[in-house]
Design a protein that fits this description.
- Helix content is 65%, strand content 0%.
Length: 315
């Protein structure tokens, strides 16, 4: 994109870019990222700043553009404040500074900026470079969820189930998972609910219920979640809720392997397959297919996936 020749069409592009950023579905170059937010700032003074920032970006002067955004943030723009926080945790041109990012997120979050509330909650939930603070994480994710952010609802539900949740926590988590399921693509909340109904870990609030497990996992599978396909395969492996069926198990394993991506790398991190405890429930050939699947998702290549395909025809 030529930053010196911005047109009305560019403005439409910037709106689409902002939507992509807010949903965390794309990585963007720093110039487009800054530009998308600058276009959304309003007011006469902000208009001049947009022009100045655009010229700075056109010259390749990231520092000057950043200073303009910082000025807008200091003047109280919640979007500029959010952008400052985001850049301090995500942009390759700036050294990560999670503590300062949290301060900017907090400023924007206190003004009701939903993505700032979400990102602040995630920073406090751990792994973000600041001291873990679960009460604060839950507080800010709850605020974002109450504004309709599906990602906040999903992650809030997950955090509520960590540690030793109370019955109230579990009931609330179910509600947020279901809310997120109605808001998000991807099938994450559906798959989480399906797994919890399968294990019965949070009974009696989420009882072990194979019918419900299948229902939620099928909903997650329809949205393309790899773990949902794997969970359905586990039903056919064990015969829980369905008749034990080798062909159906393999079919869902193939679908899972085919849709598996790097966002699910945590599944194989400790090299411990959750199916191990169920191994004794099925004939050895069932387990052999699972082993091939496991190697496939660990290596994440089509050659390994091809090794699983012959199992479809094996009876």
């Amino acid at each position: 994109m030529n930053l010196n020749s911005l047109t009305a069409e560019s403005l439409g592009l910037s709106e689409r870019i902002e939507s992509m950023i807010m949903n965390k579905h794309a990585k963007l170059q720093k110039a487009l990222f800054l530009l998308s937010f600058l276009f959304c700032l309003s007011g006469k003074a902000a208009g001049q700043s947009i022009e100045d920032a655009t010229l700075a970006l056109g010259r390749g002067d990231f520092d000057a553009a950043l200073e303009i955004v910082r000025t807008l943030a200091d003047q109280g723009s919640d979007r500029a404040q959010y952008l400052m926080g985001y850049l301090l945790t995500q942009d390759e041109n700036l050294a990560d500074d999670p503590s300062q990012a949290a301060e900017w997120f907090l400023k924007a979050a206190n003004q009701g900026h939903v993505r700032a509330q979400y990102d602040l909650g995630m920073l406090y939930s751990g792994g973000g470079g600041i001291k873990k603070d679960m009460p604060r994480a839950i507080e800010w994710l709850r605020r974002a969820a109450e504004q309709g952010d599906g990602y906040a609802s999903n992650n809030l539900a997950r955090l509520l189930l960590e540690g030793t949740p109370t019955n109230s926590d579990i009931t609330e988590a179910m509600g947020f998972f279901k809310r997120a399921a109605a808001q998000l693509d991807g099938g994450h909340p559906e798959t989480s609910l399906g797994w919890h109904y399968f294990t019965g870990k949070f009974a009696p609030m989420i009882p072990q219920d194979y019918k419900e497990s299948l229902r939620w996992n099928r909903a997650g599978a329809l949205k393309g979640h790899a773990n949902a396909h794997s969970n359905i395969a586990l039903h056919y492996f064990t015969g829980f809720g369905v008749e034990q069926n080798y062909s159906e198990m393999v079919r869902y394993l193939v679908r899972s392997a085919d849709s598996f991506d790097s966002s699910l790398s945590w599944v194989t991190e400790n090299n411990q397959d959750e199916w191990e405890e169920f191994r004794h429930l099925a004939p050895e050939k069932f387990w052999r297919a699972r082993e091939v699947y496991w190697e496939s998702i660990k290596s994440a290549n089509d050659v390994s996936l091809d090794a699983l395909l012959p199992f479809l025809d094996s009876q």
